[in-house]
């Protein structure tokens, strides 16, 4: 993901880093017709907590059959990238 992450591209980052979140993101888009970041992060928070509670460390990446890093770790990795992105004023 491009280090010049923008506010508008946070959903793309989450989709790339945590593909398991894709269905929830799609449901969000269906419900709202656009990405509402503050609502999306509420959805993402619930996703992370549910993944942790369900022990989703055993998820297997369908495309390769390899075990990726645990879902919760990838979630926090995506957030780390987002937090490092420079803040830009919205006009």
Automatic annotation (TrEMBL):
Name of the protein: Uncharacterized protein
Lineage: Bacteria, Bacillati, Actinomycetota, Actinomycetes, Streptosporangiales
């Amino acid at each position: 993901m491009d280090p010049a992450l923008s506010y508008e591209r946070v959903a793309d980052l989450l989709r790339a880093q945590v593909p398991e979140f894709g269905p929830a993101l799609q449901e969000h888009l269906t419900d709202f017709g656009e990405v509402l970041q503050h609502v999306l992060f509420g959805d993402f928070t619930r996703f992370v907590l549910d993944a942790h509670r369900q022990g989703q460390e055993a998820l297997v990446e369908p495309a390769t059959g390899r075990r990726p890093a645990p879902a919760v770790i990838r979630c926090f990795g995506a957030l780390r990238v987002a937090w490092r992105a420079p803040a830009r004023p919205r006009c």
